Amino acid sequence: MVTIENLHKKFNKNIVLSGIDLNINEGGIFAVLGPNGSGKTTLIKSILGMVIPNKGKISVLGTNIKHNSAYRSKIDYLPQIANFPNNLKVRELIKMIKDLRGKTDEDVRLIKLFNLEPFLNKKLGNLSGGTKQKVNIVLTFMFDSPLIILDEPTTGLDPISLIELKKLIQNEKAKGKTLLITSHIMSFVEEVSDEIVFILEGEIYFKGTINDLKTKTDQPDFEHAIASILTINNA
Amino acid sequence: MLKILKYSFYDLMRSRWSYVYFVFYLLLGVVLLFLNNNLSKAVITLMNVIIVLVPLIGTIFGVMYYYNSKEFTELLLAQPLKRSSIFLGQYLGVALSLSMSLILGLGIPFVFYGLFRSNDIWDFSLLLITGTFLTFIFTALAFNIALSNENRIKGFGYAILLWLFLAVIYDGLFLMSLILFEDYPLDKLSLFGTMLNPIDLSRTLILLKLDISALLGYTGAVFKKFFGTNFGLIVSIIMLSVWVVLPVLRIVYKSNRKDF
Amino acid sequence: MKKGFISLIIIFCASVLNIKAETIEVCTTCKITSIKEAIAIAKDFDTIIVKKGTYYEYDIVIDKPLTIIGENYPVIDGKLKGEIITIHSDNVTVGGFHIINVGISYTEDYAAIRIVKSKNFIIQNLKLEKLFFGIYLEKAKEGKILNNTIIGDAKQEYNSGNGIQLWYSKNIEIEGNYVQGVRDGIYLEFSDFCNITNNISKGNIRYGLHFMFSNNDVYKGNTFENNGAGVAVMFSKKIKMYNNTFKENWGSASYGLLLKEINDAEIIGNTFEKNTIGINIEGTNRINYKNNDFIRNGWAIKVRGACYANIFSGNNFLYNSFDLSYNSKMNDNVFDGNYWSNYAGYDLDKDGIGDVPYRPVKLFSYIVNRTPETIILLRSLFIDIIDFSEKVSPVFTPDDLLDNNPSIKKIEW
């Protein structure tokens, strides 16, 4: 699904990614983990073509993404901070994204699911953070793309919506799609992901299932396993 | 690109700032007509104002729009869209909406005052054409500055500096160098110096219209050819177009290499 | 015998109409086929009528008081051989001819028609083309030059002549003429008490109208357009200039009106429009400028020095690139009660006069005098700023040069 070979990226003199090789197979949920500033978001943005690597090759669904934009129609992306043009109404934003990406009717169902009907005619600038995140989720899941990338999807969600989100994720997985998720909420990661990729200082420190990680670090639970990686490396 | 242009344009047309500029130009037009009580005089005053004000508004607004629509831009970047389409669409959206504010804001009071029945319609059209050119040039320059500076305070600073340089400082340096080298033939140099600054370039377009009598007082042959024939008008318009195209090309170049 | 018979009949017919003077007809098929011939046989105060046709004649000398009238514009073609008509007699009227191909010489001033030491003449309704000099008055007096059209094709000054030239002449009326494409449209040298009225002088390579050493002349209601310079008045006294229009005299040495070493003139009610320089003044004293319109000139008035006791009042200065330029810091002239479209003051007491004086000389005009190329910076914000600072505290421009009573509204008269 996604193949990354020898990916390097630095911002000015600050090296963020140094030689990442990663292969994500089709189907299943992958969590990209790592401490703050480890390069998670840079990696995701590289896959999306928003960050342009200094070196390396990225292929999505078999096509090299360099100087290419069409491949992004195969990706649904949920950005980390949901800030939208403030002058647009929710209805208009949804219409606009549909206009840019193509037709879908999923939005009606999703709007109902997250109880967004009362907000449809409100300007995005007047919405609360949680509501914005719900709109963000609607925009992401209303298309039927084989690859879904979620950057901190749980931010600002109330418990009911969180449950709905998890359901959505499982549904998509059931359809055989590939999902790439970053999150700080370890319980959420543990609950949904099939495989994790742990990035540390721009390199892949670990790739495998959660159980593998527990075995490797010799820790009984996931959270402690992660913590132990960090303490070892900081020591 | 047209879709982006459409959304940027809609977004701007609904924003407070477009109305502010529209109302500002409207007031400017009304006040000038009221104070001067004379169409020709109002047009002349306006020409002096436009070549300074439009670049200022273009740069400030361009930079502001870019920084304020960062989220929108990031949203678009994740869509299957070319980067050049996204940025050119946004650029054109800004430049067009500013030009609209200018043309409608100034046009409405002048039309009501009886522009179509007067001989000043050509001067007024020239004024609007120049204003539109300047809007497109300075919005493009603003986008360049914003694309190169993540820090918005810095971006605003550079934008104001750019305006101050081209509107005032450049002419000061230009004047000093002309006086310094007054013993040499200067007509080519002075025309060349004018071409390098879009504000000066628009100013010559206006001089061609208002001050042709004074310009023809100078003896240089190059001057004579430039100001005495349509040559000057054609060259100025071509150079203004170059001044639009170059920054736009840099927007494309820069946006294709930028990380978000 | 037959010839004598016909002329007898002509003389008889003429005598029926007018006992005193007789009429002689000239045409290509008449008994008399040339003008010279007709003059030769004519007696004093006879009338010669020339019918339509082309007459190849030059050196026609009119030495007796005659009226010579062309009917339907007969052509007199001088074939570039020399002067065409020369008048050596008082009381001559010539009119209605189309005169072409005057000889061109570098040693002699050949004219289409010359009046020498004569008075009471009328030259009217002539059309002159392909000429060297047009109408040349030499020590002539009390004559009229009316409604002639003079169209030359002069290219250079040195091999072209003037349209209407007066030399040591007095009391001449020049009215309703149209002069184009010659060196000077109308030229007066040592000629006093002449009236020049309602003429149009256009596209001449030197001056539309030129005075040299001529005094007490009046010109009014004339139009001077697109000449090398509109009107030049030099070394003359008491010239009155009323209600003329000076238009589009463009070029590096182009003026609507050039005044050099002239005293006690009146310049009233004229319009100066779109000239490179409206009025260029050098060495002029006691001149009264009143109620003139200066519209969109490069420089409305350029003062080159040695100008004293001139008064500028009640003029309109409208949208000139520069209203006034001085080349010195000295000022002995008065500017009072003019309307300046560039005036930015206010009138709080509503008396129609601005409460702050207007300073018509800008620093930038001083800079442009020094370095002409800087003209390209006209209307720049930077220039406005330095002009403003000069206005606040004059350093380079005369600080007493002020209009203390600038009018708030355009002046009507």
Description:
The complex is a heterotrimer of chains A (235), B (260) and C (413). Chain A has 235 residues and is of the alpha/beta class. Chain A has eight helices and ten strands. Chain A has a six-stranded mixed β-sheet with strand order 6-7-8-3-9-10, sandwiched between helices. In chain A, strands 2-1-4-5 form a four-stranded antiparallel β-sheet, with helices on one face. The longest helix of chain A has 16 residues, at 159-174. The relative contact order of chain A is 0.17. By secondary structure, chain B is mainly alpha-helical. Chain B has helices spanning 2-14, 16-36, 39-68, 70-77, 83-113, 121-148, 152-180, 187-195, 198-210, 212-215, 221-228, 231-257. Chain C has one domain (47-392): Pectate Lyase C-like, CATH 2.160.20. Chain C is 10% helix and 34% strand. In chain C, the strands form three sheets. A 14-stranded parallel β-sheet of chain C has the order 1-2-5-8-11-14-17-20-23-26-29-32-35-38. A 13-stranded parallel β-sheet of chain C has the order 3-6-9-12-15-18-21-24-27-30-33-36-39, with no helix packed on it. In chain C, strand 1 (23-26), helix 2 and strand 2 form a beta-alpha-beta unit. The longest helix of chain C has 16 residues, at 2-17. Chain C is elongated, with a radius of gyration of 26 Å. Chain C starts with a helix and ends in a 21-residue tail after the last helix. The mean pLDDT of chain C is 89. At the B-C interface, helix 3, helix 7, helix 8, helix 9 and helix 10 of B face helix 4 of C.
Strand content of chain B: under 5%
Structural class, judged by helices and strands of chain B?
mainly alpha
| Main sheet summary of chain A | 6 strands, mixed
Q: Quick check: average pLDDT of chain B?
A: 87
Low-confidence stretches of chain B: none
Shape of chain B: globular
Topology of helices and strands:
The complex is a heterotrimer of chains A (235), B (260) and C (413).
Chain A lengths: L1 E10 L2 E11 L3 E6 L6 H9 L6 E6 L2 E2 L10 E4 L11 H12 L4 H8 L15 H13 L5 E5 L7 H16 L3 E5 L3 H7 L2 E6 L2 E6 L1 H8 L4 H13 L1
Helix pairs in contact in A: 3-4, 7-8
Chain B lengths: L1 H13 L1 H21 L2 H30 L1 H8 L5 H31 L7 H28 L3 H29 L6 H9 L2 H13 L1 H4 L5 H8 L2 H27 L3
Helix pairs in contact in B: 1-5, 2-3, 2-5, 3-5, 3-6, 3-7, 3-9, 5-6, 5-12, 6-7, 6-9, 6-12, 9-12, 11-12
Chain C lengths: L1 H16 L5 E4 L8 H7 L5 E4 L3 E2 L4 E3 L4 E4 L4 E3 L7 E3 L5 E3 L2 E3 L10 E6 L5 E3 L2 E3 L3 E6 L5 E3 L2 E3 L12 E4 L5 E3 L2 E3 L5 E4 L5 E3 L2 E3 L4 E6 L5 E3 L2 E3 L3 E6 L5 E3 L2 E3 L7 E6 L5 E3 L2 E3 L3 E6 L5 E3 L2 E3 L3 E5 L7 E3 L2 E3 L3 E5 L7 E3 L2 E2 L22 H8 L10 H12 L21
Parallel strand pairs in C: 1-2, 2-5, 3-6, 4-7, 5-8, 6-9, 7-10, 8-11, 9-12, 10-13, 11-14, 12-15, 13-16, 14-17, 15-18, 16-19, 17-20, 18-21, 19-22, 20-23, 21-24, 22-25, 23-26, 24-27, 25-28, 26-29, 27-30, 28-31, 29-32, 30-33, 31-34, 32-35, 33-36, 34-37, 35-38, 36-39
